[in-house]
Input
Amino acid sequence: MRHSRFLFLLPFLGLLLLNGCTGYQLGSQLPSDIQSVYVPTVINQTSEPLLENEVTRAILGQLQRDGSLSITSEKDADAILYVTLTSYNVFPLAFSRENRSLPNEYRLTLGASAELIRQDNGKVLARDGDLIGRDDFGLSGDFTSAKELGLPGVAEDLARYIVAAITEAWPD
Output
């Protein structure tokens, strides 16, 4: 008897839940005429050299995986994605048991701003100035080599945030 009352309420609960999804749209929130993007090399304003190539490569890969925008040449693009690296930080996370002042695990963060500009009229389609990618890495060998090993992970994490920021931007 108890279960039959619950089953009677189930359709109403379903309708209530679906009502909360009204207006939600899956996929890109960009205008329908924005189908392609050109991605120039990322601008590096940090003091750490050579980050721009890895981050640019990661953004291109993430755009391909996402599939909302096709990557094309500048002259054929509907929009241009400008990305500027604004911060690079390395923080110790864990320390050696033998020597508590010696870090053996670090967190690498990359900060960036991204702006998607419409090619035909220069209008800003999406902008986010506070994107941060993170990755943790262990100390293997010297510190410089370890940081280089951590760079692909942080670049991938940042690229996911950048692509989400431009494809999931809510229209004004």
Observations:
- The mean pLDDT is 84.
- The chain has three helices and six strands.
- The chain has one domain: 28-167.
